[in-house]
Amino acid sequence: MARKRSLTGWLGLAAALGLAGYAGARYLRQRAAHHRRQPHAAVDWERARWVAARVAADGAAPLRDHARHHAAYAGMVRRSELLVAEYMGVRLPQPIEAIAVVDRAGWIDANLHSFGGVLASLEALHGTDGTSALDAVLYEVNRQAVAAQLGAMLGYLARRVLGQYDLGIFAAEVPARGTLYFVEPNIDRLVRSLDVPGDEFRLWIALHETTHVFQFEAFPWVRPYFADLVRTFIAQTSDQLGALAQSLPELAGRLARRQPLEQHWIEWLLTPEQRVVFDRIQALMSVIEGYSNHAMNAIGQRLLPNHARIEHQVAARRLNRPLVDDMVNRVTGMDLKLAQYQQGQAFIDAVVAARGIACANLVWRSAADLPTTDELREPARWIARITAQTPVAPADIAG
What we know:
Layout: H1 7-31, E1 36-37, H2 45-56, H3 66-88, E2 99-102, H4 104-126, E3 129-130, H5 133-158, E4 163-166, E5 179-183, H6 184-194, H7 198-217, H8 222-235, H9 237-256, H10 265-268, H11 272-303, H12 307-319, H13 323-332, H14 334-355, H15 357-360, H16 373-377, H17 379-387
Parallel strand pairs: 2-5
Antiparallel strand pairs: 1-3, 4-5
Helix pairs in contact: 1-4, 1-5, 1-14, 2-4, 2-5, 3-7, 7-11, 8-11, 11-14
């Protein structure tokens, strides 16, 4: 089940789409003699929206009675805010107000806006100059191809995403706080498919997404730390283009020989410098996703009479998902998100089992207190490192 869009998945996909879209743009710029600026953005956003809408259309239903749905989710978020605050031992600087209940089209529009910021950053790095009519034709073919790829991916995800916490860090005017999205038609369809109580299932999702708000807004260092990692990652894509000459032939050779890859294919496209940043993002997002799952289930077990049934049905659905879903997850990098859920939750669960939630909450004390990728696999190493330092009460770590 795709609960939310993965930020790491977006970054991996941005790397792939960025290379596909802007390798051509950089080639044109290097050929430029008169530096004639192309008249269009590097992605045809209307075409991307058109493709996404048609891929997402199967079984889609427009959202009706928006006011009723919004009031219901706002109430669940308010309830979740109190429960998560009690569990984490912190409170938000301000109550959660930015809540959007959308259909698939609304989710696509929101994410086109968000992803546009990623590609705009890449466009600024690589430029879009051409020198001839042929260059202009090639450039247009390139931008249409990237739009089709992006639209197809967004349309596919729009059929599966249930909830999302969007930081908005790529917007022209970065908001002070993020927005919670609930894709109600997808949630309603899954409730019917799983045959679980709708009110409990929706609260279960709200608990997960509300925990994300606490992670980014109750601890002042998390949001700028993540934003800096993302900006650094994107700034390094110029070097990534040059590294393709070595990485792509090796990757293609291994795939042709059916040799196992020690890394995800997206990681093969990264420079050594990008891999360092990517590992830090992976570690942060594993903790964020894993902790949210842990809190959702820890609170849900006490709160929801049908929690065990919901967990069982969701797990069974995940195990029996179609082969095409696995293929798309692999191609788009969304399988990295699934790994984040699993590894991050296993880490938090292990720490809580060994030392309690107060110890697990120390991951939010500072960036230095985050587990490394090795510590995620061996929680005892992180526990030994953290508890060797002066302990800080969970209520104090928001700063």
